[in-house]
UniProtKB/TrEMBL annotation:
Family per record: Belongs to the short-chain dehydrogenases/reductases (SDR) family.
One family name in Pfam for this protein: adh_short_C2
Protein's UniProt name: Gluconate 5-dehydrogenase
GO molecular function, one term: oxidoreductase activity, acting on the CH-OH group of donors, NAD or NADP as acceptor
Amino acid sequence: MTSDLFSLQNKIAIVTGGGTGLGFGITKAFIEAGATVIITGRREHKLEEAVEKLGKNAHYIVNDVTEFDTLPGLVGQVESDFGPIDILVNNAGVNMKKPLTEVTDEEFNDIIQTNVNGLFSLTREVAKKMLPRGKGSIINITSMAAMYGITDVTAYTSSKTAVLGMTRSLAVDLSGEGIRVNAIAPGFIDSPMLREAFDSDPAREKRVMDRTPMNKLGQADDIAAAAVYLASDAAKFVTGVNLPVDGGNSIGF
């Protein structure tokens, strides 16, 4: 009974930015739970490599979420080739660490274009397909930057805070029609990039660990497990939440 609750058997999922990082981890967990997953991204060689590792239930379509006119076609292709979309994970995103006085309007807009506008446009197109069927699960990826202030990431923080607000608004608009909308806020997840950042800034590592009650970094599969939960029937009465998977970082002091 418990295993059935978390099953994604016969579900069709799209994971944007699914070729690397957290998106790859989420895709792998979805496949292990029984789903067929279509990953998207701009770099075909990364998508090819990912699909080779993930096996026969993984497929890819090269797509850039900022090219809005391609998104209806993307959604139509997935539904035509694989079947009705049950799950959308809006994972694709870009970050930029830079003092705010040096951030150009173009750079700021580029972050918003990918992290907010692209997310909205794809979600709208998927919702058009989900609404007549009266079911679906949409999962957005927010950030600790939407929970508290972090230096030198004004554009990124603005985008992820917008995604948090959009998650709540979409949940209000769609949940009565059977479509749940939730978000995951990853904490500090162990990766070569984060380790490199900590090595070059030990004070930052100390700040992170001092405010993380569990006193350790997260793993990619922690985020993936949360995504499986939110996508599955185990979360059938959960909508509009922003789930921190952060070892307590967002509530630590």
